[in-house]
């Protein structure tokens, strides 16, 4: 069977693993990638430049020449509407091809996704077992057998729903990621993306993990990890082929299992020794961990702060780390010369200018190397939606828009002052690490008599 994977904007490990599974079973695969330069919805959009960088004509041409039997999408809420645009056009070009949608957004609102008549199958939860069954289902032309973790529309237009099985426990049973499918788009020599585990031990209110872990009807361990041997086999193979210069481990929290981490980093230092970056949590981070990471080649860690007010962070975001823990983590990272990349959410429901001021003052004294502010995004089925209702930011109409992937990051408190101070503090957080230390205290926000935020340098 000929299979096409549709990719929007970023490299997707979901595509990498499904491509590996398809190749292992003897199918041919092709990647159809579209960038979202100047139209990603997260930064400023420039329609003219976006049209200039669009490759739609080229991928439509490639699709027509390839004529796949199956076209697969893995989508998040941000890209759902774009994915629908391409899926509908792909179906017109290849009407015989079956279109499969999977990913976090699909798992949260499958009934919304399957309502599109050009989508034939939706995958809910993990797709590694479902995907080969979907392929065989298409090959047989059968329209009545249920498929695990899958909904599909039968020939008489009824929705057939398969049971939700437990999460895959033995990750070593899966093939290694097929990162070669990306080599024409993202050069593997300069950057290699992989993942050693699945699941997160935390339950942040704005994250998909809290509902995703409860999807299976059969309860099973949510947090799982590949063996050191399995990961090393993958890294050795790609290191030899592509002379990789940087590896990013995309695990939710790379350091959660200290025994595994110690064994892995020892093997990694001996056999791979390539600079890498990973994700940590300050509650699990200490000096010994920093020493091990640095010794093995870690150059960069990413971690979430999201809001600096401890009471707000615990009540609204379900994050239990203290500011003392954040401060200690930053000190340790600076001591061992590991780049610190701190995430911070702007525009949270009920957030105040006092919280932003608290953050500004905290960062002046405890500065990460990079602060990455993100606009608040409401995703279907996440708990923080309740807080959006409490603060009159969300209503039933807006939830329907979010479920359909329309502007999930654009809902803020409605008064002009709210939007103004969110904007101003977004800018301050973004640039503060780059401002010379002696000037940082002078970068402030002033609220004038009309209650509109105004950024200024105070001398």
- List segments where confidence is low: pLDDT < 50 over at least 5 consecutive residues: 413-417, 447-453
Average pLDDT reading: 90
**Strand order within the widest sheet?**
2-1-3-4-5-6-7
> Structural class per helix/strand content?
alpha/beta
Q: Could you name the CATH class of the domain at 2-161?
A: Alpha Beta
Note down, in words, how this protein is organized:
It is a single chain. The protein has 459 residues and is of the alpha/beta class. Among the domains are: 2-161, Cobalamin-binding domain (Rossmann fold); 189-279, no CATH class. Helix content is 37%, strand content 18%. It is built from 17 helices and 17 strands. It has helices at residues 13-24, 47-53, 56-66, 80-93, 104-108, 110-114, 130-140, 209-212, 228-242, 258-271, 287-296, 310-317, 323-335, 353-365, 385-390, 396-403, 416-431, and strands spanning 2-8, 28-34, 70-74, 98-102, 121-123, 150-153, 159-161, 192-194, 197-198, 224-225, 247-249, 276-279, 298-306, 339-346, 370-375, 443-447, 453-457. Strands 2-1-3-4-5-6-7 form a 7-stranded mixed beta sheet, with helices on both faces. A 6-stranded parallel beta sheet has the order 8-11-12-13-14-15. Helix 10 packs parallel to helix 11. Mean pLDDT is 90; it is low at 413-417 and 447-453.
